[in-house]
Amino acid sequence: MSGNKLRLGVNIDHVATVRNARGGAYPDPLRAAKLAEEAGADGITAHLREDRRHISDADIDGLMEVLSVPLNFEMAATEEMQKIALRHKPHAVCIVPEKREERTTEGGLEVAREENRLAHYIAPLREAGCRVSIFIAADRAQIEAAHRIGAEVIELHTGAYCDAHAEERFEERDRELESLREMSAFANSLGLEVHAGHGLSYETVKPIAAFPEVMELNIGHFLIGEAIFRGMTPAIHEMRRLMDEARA
Ligand code: PXP
Hints:
An eight-stranded parallel barrel has the order 1-2-3-4-5-6-7-8, surrounded by seven helices. By secondary structure, the protein is α/β, with parallel strands linked by helices. It has helices at 13-22, 29-38, 57-66, 79-88, 115-127, 140-148, 159-166, 170-189, 205-209, 221-230, 232-247, and strands at residues 7-11, 43-47, 71-75, 92-95, 131-136, 153-157, 193-197, 214-219. It is 49% helix and 17% strand. The chain has one domain (7-247): Alpha-Beta Barrel (TIM Barrel). The longest helix has 20 residues, at 170-189. Pyridoxine-5'-phosphate binds next to strand 8 and helix 10. Residues 11, 13, 47, 74, 94, 96, 104-105, 135, 155, 197-200, 218-222 line the site of pyridoxine-5'-phosphate. 1-deoxy-D-xylulose 5-phosphate binds at residues 13-14, 49, 54, 104.
């Protein structure tokens, strides 16, 4: 996980979504994680939601045990999640906002509004050796706040850019892309490592992968969906190819 190569983190949450649709053990997200690893994923991302709608506590235990690549553990800034993270000490902890009624993580974290609380919240995680990443919108005030609270990494929310693309609102898409570009450079100038993710697909990945400051992309839903059609390994290989092409 070093050097200048753009890393691909594969989010396996939605393998658990399919498993949980029937309440059993199949398909197993750990098997998907190992397959993703073999296909060249540089890391595995999993979001333990407060309502446990996809990934379970046992999945996190299992991932910590079986993975050879780093785990990026996504979680809300709650006391319960902090305890779980401190027990496992994953390579990275990504703090995300969470509302129970949402279908997915809809916006970035409001760091500026909760600066004091979040600074205290992430301190023990950093002391435990976790790289703390904050999932935020491409917004200068949020980036500055993330920097002030001592985060090492920010992950820029690419959802608005991807939605605008999917809905063919191309001017808006291009504006979103421009602010992602500017804010990647701004965050980098503060010394923050820049990651990006949410909603990325083969159609939307390349402009983001081309930003030289972006060091890691976290991609889940599209890849798990695409795995249905072409298989997990070819789905990941194609994403890797597009990322490399954009970066070249
Ligand atoms: N990054 C973060 C912080 C996320 O919360 C998610 C969704 O869980 C992703 C990346 C991946 O998004 P998607 O599943 O839409 O690719």
